[in-house]
Every structure is written in C-alpha cells, then in structure tokens.
C-alpha cells in the first residue's frame, strides 16, 4: 500500500499537475488569452516565491539544520537548486523515500 501512496499520490499526481499547467499555458498563449496566461504564471510562481521567502527567513535564525547546510559543498547546493528549477526534486525525493522505506 505504501508504494501506491508514494508513486501515485506523490510522483504521478505532481508531474501530471505540472504537465497540465504547461499545457494550459500553451493553450492560453495560442488562443491569445494573455490575462489568463499571466494569472496562471503568477499562480505557478507564488508557491516558489513564498518558499524562497520562508527560506530567507529561516536563514536568519540560528539552528542546527542551517549550520549543517552551510557545511555542504557548493556543488551539492547547486545540484539541489538545479533539481528544483528543473522540477526534478520530487522524483529524487520519491526514489530516496522508496530506498529507505524498509531501513
């Protein structure tokens, strides 16, 4: 049962939503519905912007987790940022979750 939650509810639904968002952007652009296009882009960017804001607030507070992240190499941080920008972070997190399921 755990793999249904992991694969279907996490991985499949997330990437289906992303795919449908991009398809919707394409439809709005080709039909010249620029207001809907802009509002959809804003709706897609709001979670990213709010997450960046939360991370910036978190960076200002001293914590064990912040100190651990600052100890990472720059290559690792760049890799994580690229995963998020390319929308591949959910795939990596799903693989890691399935790997450590029985540990």
Q: What does the model show?
A:
This protein is mainly α and 103 residues long. Helices cover 83% and strands 0% of the residues. The chain is built from 5 helices and no strands. Helix 1 packs across helix 2 (34-59) and helix 1 (2-30) packs antiparallel against helix 5. The two termini are 17 Å apart. The model has no long low-confidence stretch (mean pLDDT 84).
Strand and helix map with partners:
Blueprint: H1 2-30, H2 34-59, H3 64-70, H4 74-85, H5 89-99
Helix pairs in contact: 1-2, 1-5
Mean pLDDT: 84
Over the alpha carbons, how many angstroms does the gyration radius reach? 17 Å
The dominant shape is extended
| SSE order, one letter for each helix or strand | HHHHH
- The number of distinct helices, counting runs of at least 4 residues, comes to 5
In a few lines, what is going on in this structure?
By secondary structure, the protein is mainly α. The chain has five helices and no strands.
List keywords for this structure.
0% strand; mainly alpha; 5 helices; 103 residues; single chain; 83% helix; extended
């Amino acid at each position: 049962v755990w793999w249904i939650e992991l694969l279907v509810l996490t991985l499949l639904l997330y990437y289906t939503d992303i795919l449908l968002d991009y398809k919707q952007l394409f439809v709005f652009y080709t039909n010249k519905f620029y207001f809907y296009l802009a509002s959809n882009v804003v709706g897609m960017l709001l979670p990213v912007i709010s997450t960046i804001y939360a991370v910036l607030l978190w960076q200002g507070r001293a914590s064990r987790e912040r100190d651990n992240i600052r100890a990472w190499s720059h290559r690792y941080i760049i890799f994580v940022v690229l995963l998020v920008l390319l929308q591949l972070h959910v795939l990596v997190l799903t693989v890691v979750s399935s790997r450590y399921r029985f540990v």
